[in-house]
Amino acid sequence: MEKKKVFEVQAMESFAPYLTAPNILQQITQQLTEDDTNCPKELAQEMLQKKLKNKKYLLVIDGEVSGTEWKHFLTSIPVGPRGSRVVHITQGKPEEPPSSYHHVTIQLKKLTEDASMSLFRQRLPKELQDKNLKKYQKSIFKITQGLPLAVVLLSGLVQTKVFPSDWVKVFHYLKSKPSANLESMLSVCFDDLPHELKCCFLYFAALPTNTTIEARSLVFMWVAEGFLSSKGGKTMEKIGNIYLSELINRNLVNRVKMDDDSSFGNRST
């Protein structure tokens, strides 16, 4: 059954950490507004209440929210008909809703060793997927601890290595780290980047969290910042596209299909 037939109103928004309730209300209202009119923050609550009143809705909130702001947000929206849902995706312990709300906490499980290996293989180029990777399974699981993002990052890291012996060196180094966690994995992936790619990758930190940006616009931003220079007869835009492809191949940037046309956007993981 399609969710559009179940819920009359639905919205999903990702936020920078610890936004205030008015900011969250404003962004959701803006998404549900059919035209491009900017939604004033002071009118967001009233506008959202009108859109949700007596309608079965699904709101998905992705981002860290303080307990006070979370309760403020929930009390700012109307209680919908039976079956309406507010889903909060968070990395830490979820905040308790007001006592009038029935809530269920769903804790996502880590991947098993076999599932980790399957994901690792899927994120490799086709020419590497047929290799005998079973011998690396124990090392991959020990390093990633079944965390999907860690598996994806490790896959992107090792595929830049030409020789199998280099894979072994990477695994040995990561297993020797005092704490084999996501932070250390990200650190190693960043350190492994060529110098000219590091500034380009760090530029994602200047963009809003969990946003999508058109690839061409991103390359133009890199050009404006002075990160790129023409070389080997290639234009700066061409060099930028090469750098972006390298970041995508390393699984440091997600490639996503844009809604408006056949172009692609990119966002940092």
Automatic annotation (TrEMBL):
It comes from the Eukaryota. Keywords: Plant defense, Repeat. It comes from Miscanthus lutarioriparius. The keyword Transport does not apply. Residues 19-122 form the NB-ARC domain. InterPro entries: Apaf_helical, Disease_R_plants, NB-ARC, P-loop_NTPase, WH-like_DNA-bd_sf, WHD_DRP. This is NB-ARC domain-containing protein. The keyword Repeat applies. Residues 208-260 form the Disease resistance protein winged helix domain. PANTHER family: DISEASE RESISTANCE PROTEIN RP (PTHR23155), OS03G0379801 PROTEIN (PTHR23155:SF889). One of its GO terms (molecular function) is ADP binding. GO terms for biological process: defense response to bacterium; innate immune response-activating signaling pathway; plant-type hypersensitive response.
